[in-house]
Amino acid sequence: MSDRAKVFKAPEHVTVHRKSIFLAGSIEMGSVEDWQTRLTAKLSHLPITIMNPRRDAWDGSWEQDISNPMFKQQVDWELDSQDRADVIALFFHPDTKAPISLLELGLYAASGKMIVCCPPGFYRRGNVQIVCDRFGVELVDTMEELTERVIKKLEE
Q1: For residue 2, what pLDDT is reported?
Q2: In the chain, what are the domain boundaries?
Q3: pTM exceeding the 0.90 threshold for the entire prediction
Q4: Main-chain phi, psi angles of 131, to 5 degrees
């Protein structure tokens, strides 16, 4: 087994035989930075599995309905991957609304595997702070802090 990270992007079949992380949070295809790639680069030296929902062939015209097989495949992949992950790194980009990320926070806050980054300026920061406080989720303000905490949790 390689000592370097193995990266799976939606909708690839994921095989996990070591510590794993799911990169949850703001995507907004094309309108905000690709923070998933930046975090992946900082984790690439670790012997882990990284699950990245940023689909290379995403089509923004897909109807977001359970009857759309491509959309359903994406959402199922994300939910299955979060269920399997040892760590969920959740990033709220301050220039996004991130309704799905807020949903993911609600779904996995009690899981014990989340680390959340919610910089000042995110429009629902107070709600995120309160949920994290209530469920004992570690909350940080910067991508640098998120990276440090994720590495520490993956090395535990």
Answers
A1: 65
A2: 6-155
A3: yes
A4: -60, -45
pLDDT value, residue 29: 58
Residue 104: count of CB within 10 angstroms of its CB: 22
Residue holding tokens 């107070």? Answer: 126
pLDDT at 1: 52
Residues in the chain, pLDDT under 50: none
Q: Which two tokens stand for residue 3?
A: 């000592």
Q: Are strands 87-91 and 114-117 parallel, antiparallel or unpaired?
A: parallel
b/e 18-45 (16+ beta carbons within 10 angstroms → b): ebbbbbbbbbeeeeeeebbeebbebbee
For 9-34, write each residue's pLDDT tens digit. 999 999 988 999 999 998 875 667 88
Tokens found for residue 66: 């359970």
Query: What's the rounded Cα separation, in Å, for the pair 143 and 84?
Result: 23
- Residue type present at position 24: A
- What's the CATH number of domain 6-155, 3.30.565.10, 3.40.30.10, 3.40.50.450, 3.40.50.10320? 3.40.50.450
Identity (one letter) of the amino acid at 90? Answer: L
